[in-house]
Design brief:
The complex is a heterodimer of chains A (409) and B (96). Chain A has 409 residues and is of the alpha/beta class. Chain A folds into 2 domains: 259 residues, NAD(P)-binding Rossmann-like Domain (Rossmann fold), CATH 3.40.50; 95 residues, Rhodanese-like domain (Oxidized Rhodanese, domain 1, 3-Layer(aba) Sandwich). Chain A is built from 16 helices and 13 strands. In chain A, β10, α14 and β11 form a beta-alpha-beta unit. With 96 residues, chain B is an alpha+beta fold. Chain B has one domain: Ubiquitin-like (UB roll) (Roll). A 5-stranded mixed beta sheet of chain B has the order 2-1-5-3-4, covered by helices on one side. In chain B, a hairpin with a 2-residue loop joins β3 and β4. Chain B is globular. Classes of the chains: A alpha/beta (409), B alpha+beta (96).
């Protein structure tokens, strides 16, 4: 791995091909009559033409994640005629995916996403090759998988994988078409792109040197996402993949696009490479893939809090144990389903510490137990509570084990 | 007055305001103004050394303050300041 990085760095200093796309010899690419009919609307665009269509057919594009962003991106890349598409996803299709992951339907629920995606895409375009990587991308396998492709599109859903994809693409010298979403907001940029002048653009570590501390920015699973948003942002990502592959237009490299669906405002900022970038700044310190969960602090064990299982809670309720019951979710979640606890959302819980009993036992719950644990830590740290118990697995655990009649959301 | 664009994840600390107007001459002054009105923003906008943390980007008009004068970057009358935190997408924070 170190040798590879060394080789990469050697290449940096040497004159090399102008783009960091090693085009397959697309001059030899042939189209059948059916393909020419299918791609007619591309071919008749003067700036695009048969030349760009050939580059698409010759291209090898790896889409990491076939969820909210990956779904529209894969549909458009397959429809556009990208000749070789790899899909990395280890997840299974879930009912709660269908609100935005438009590759899948009811029949695919429970099936591996990458396999289901391949089936759908081959029915859309039988003239392309789809390669399924039904595994989790890790520091061990990322270089081997990514190496085989020309362009990577990051549609993943968590910080460790984003840094992993970034670092692997930088070490391998591949362009990384990046997009990310949260609630109503989307971000797009093209990282590690070498332009026609041979200038290398910034990468994710130039934009965000470190990930936020755990829990500071809620995930979409906790904070939600408007279903159409990944449709918009994933389509923009497909657009940039096509531009990178074909060389048509100005690639979104050195620029960072953000879109706010609520205000319908978009902005495009300028980005530059940071000399302090540990991957390819003036004094690089990261020369191989690292442990990204440790990097994102996911392995730092948080101080444990006292817990109570849903079964124990149920026993307490049945035998009429005297305890205070608090729900730290948001009002709108409470309205969907609640266990009759007092609602004090996490954000304001420390402001309402006076409402929390100091003598009897206090059970605090949320959706799955993360926010309530955080609330307990804050209350213990700031006010010295010693009588707080976290409901393990939260209201979802309670629904699973005690009352399946209640609504999950 | 400069306009500050508040990103979705931080709007819960600004009474859901998406944009605010602030009288400030520099980015640091702007942050101090925001924190005065909305104290819960502080831990998101300033680290222990009084710097903007590296998982938050601040752009004055179209440019990253890291490529200008960092926290001392001048905020002109009518400037638009955007606060853009790192977002990752869907997975629950417990899932790696």
């Amino acid at each position: 791995m170190q040798l590879l990085a060394l080789y990469q760095r050697l290449l940096e200093g040497l004159p090399q091909q102008k783009h960091n796309i090693k085009y397959m010899n697309h001059d030899n690419i042939q189209f059948s009559k059916e393909e020419l009919t299918r791609y007619n609307r591309h071919i008749i665009i003067k700036e695009f033409g048969l030349e760009a269509q050939k580059k698409l057919k010759a291209a090898k594009v790896l889409v990491i994640g076939s969820g909210g962003l990956g779904s529209p991106m894969l549909l458009y890349l397959a429809a556009a005629g990208v000749g070789n598409i790899g899909i990395v996803d280890f997840d299974l299709v879930d009912d709660s995916n269908l609100q935005r992951q438009v590759l899948f339907g009811v029949n695919e629920v429970g099936k591996p996403k990458a396999e289901a995606a391949k089936k759908r895409l081959q029915s859309l375009n039988p003239y392309i090759n789809i390669h399924v990587h039904n595994i989790q991308l890790t520091s061990k396998n990322a270089l081997d998988i990514i190496e085989k492709y020309d362009v990577v599109a990051d549609g993943t859903d968590n910080f460790p994988t984003r840094y992993l994809v970034n670092d692997a693409t930088v070490l391998l010298g591949k362009p990384n078409v990046y997009a990310s979403i949260y609630q109503f907001e989307g971000q797009v940029s093209v990282f590690n792109y070498r332009n026609a002048k041979g200038e290398l653009g910034p990468n994710y570590r130039d934009l965000y040197a470190t990930p936020p501390p755990l829990g500071l920015v809620p995930s979409c699973a906790e904070g939600g996402v408007l279903g159409v948003l990944p449709g918009i942002i994933g389509s923009l990502q497909a657009l940039e993949v096509i531009k990178v592959v074909t060389g048509v237009g100005d690639v979104l490299s050195g620029r960072f696009f953000i879109f706010d669906a609520l205000t319908f405002e978009s902005r495009t900022f300028n980005l530059k490479r940071n000399p302090a970038n540990p991957l390819n700044g003036t004094n690089p310190t990261i020369k191989e893939l690292i442990d990204y969960e440790a990097f994102c602090n996911l392995k730092t064990p948080e101080r444990p809090v006292k817990e109570i299982s849903v079964k124990e809670l149920y026993d307490w309720q049945v035998r009429g144990e005297d305890f205070q019951f608090i729900d730290v979710r948001e009002q709108h979640e409470y309205e969907i389903v609640n266990l009759g606890a007092e609602l004090i959302p996490l954000d304001v819980v420390t402001q309402h510490a006076d409402k929390i009993d100091r003598k009897k036992k206090v059970v605090i719950h949320c959706k799955t137990g993360n926010r309530s644990a955080k609330a307990i830590r804050e209350l213990e740290d700031k006010f010295g509570f010693i009588n707080l118990y976290n409901l393990k697995a939260g209201i979802f655990g309670y629904i699973d084990e005690v009352n399946p009649e209640l609504t999950k959301y | 007055m400069a306009t500050v664009i508040i990103p979705t994840p931080l709007r819960r600390f600004t009474n859901n305001a998406a944009r605010l107007t602030v009288e400030a001459n520099s980015v640091l002054e702007m942050i101090q103004c925001l924190v005065k009105d909305f104290p819960d923003l502080k831990k998101h906008l300033l680290d222990a050394n009084g710097k903007v943390p590296s998982f938050i980007n601040i752009f004055v008009d179209d440019d990253d303050i890291r490529n200008l004068q960092q926290e001392q970057t001048v905020v002109k009358e009518n400037a638009t300041v955007s606060i853009v935190p790192a977002i990752a997408g869907g997975a629950p924070s417990t899932k790696a």
